[in-house]
Amino acid sequence: MSIFSDVERTIEREFHRWTAKAFGPADSNSLLLVHHGVFEEVSGKIQTGVRGKRFCPFNHIVVRLSSADEVQRSLFDVTLASQARLESDVREFLTAAGCEVPANFAVEVEDAGTASKPFEVVCSHRVDPPAPFIKSGRARLVVAHGKAVQESFLLNKPRTNIGRLPELTDAEQRVVRRNDIVFDDGSDEANATVSRSHAHIRLDAETGEYRICDDASEYGTRIFRDGRSIEVPSVGRRGERLNPGDEIYLGRVCLRFEIS
């Protein structure tokens, strides 16, 4: 049993209530097994330092999900990753357990296809590499169509969220996502085609590329490059690589990716 079982039960009760209402009891129970497995792994790795102070020796969690049912894998992805619910719950768990949430803390969900284990949880301490573009220039997004709070945005973070609200909260008014680039709904007609959690741009640590991922948006995400349109898969794992000069369409809003 987890040493933080009381905290865990409270969070999991809310998670079960939310998923049962959204997806039904059967899928809710499957999601709860993964949720519980993550908490068990996390609680087992929390350490106690001097004077009994607890600390978290990792800042990165990868949850690899496996199922022969592609629909179920998609459900897991949308529920746990796209809506950032799992990361929000783990952050709450760590805080309630007396641990300071590490800088650059992140929870990622990966599709492991039809591997033998239904899910695997890997905790590690990750040091984000410096953005390669920053050495010779700066990567930025320039608003070409639509109205945002700024005309351009420097991509100086490992992940940049884009959406229609500054913050998204769940039924319990807990923040589950913060958008770095915000297209306010009432500012422009095109802005209404941007979903609340539309997409995000991340720096790929392995290749040094900037990639854009669609977060199950309503009107989709596409890249216009060299006279052709490239559709960004909804809730895709790796997303699509960005090249300087690419025009990114979020619904009818357009951003231009530049290196200067």
Annotation keywords:
260 residues; 5 helices; alpha+beta; 18 strands; single chain; hypothetical protein PF0899 fold
The biggest sheet amounts to: 6 strands, antiparallel
Percent in strands: 25-35%
Output the strand order for the largest sheet.
7-6-18-17-14-15
Q: What structural class results from the helix and strand content?
A: alpha+beta
Report on the architecture of this protein.
With 260 residues, this protein is of the alpha+beta class. It folds into 2 domains: 5-124, hypothetical protein PF0899 fold, CATH 3.30.2320; 132-259, Tumour Suppressor Smad4, CATH 2.60.200.20. The protein is 27% helix and 30% strand. The chain has helices spanning 5-23, 25-45, 70-82, 85-96, 132-136; strands at 47-48, 54-55, 60-65, 106-111, 119-124, 139-145, 152-154, 159-163, 167-169, 175-178, 181-182, 199-203, 210-214, 221-225, 228-231, 240-241, 247-250, 253-259.
In short:
The protein is built from five helices and 18 strands. It has helices at residues 5-23, 25-45, 70-82, 85-96, 132-136; strands at residues 47-48, 54-55, 60-65, 106-111, 119-124, 139-145, 152-154, 159-163, 167-169, 175-178, 181-182, 199-203, 210-214, 221-225, 228-231, 240-241, 247-250, 253-259. A hairpin with a 6-residue loop joins β6 (139-145) and β7.
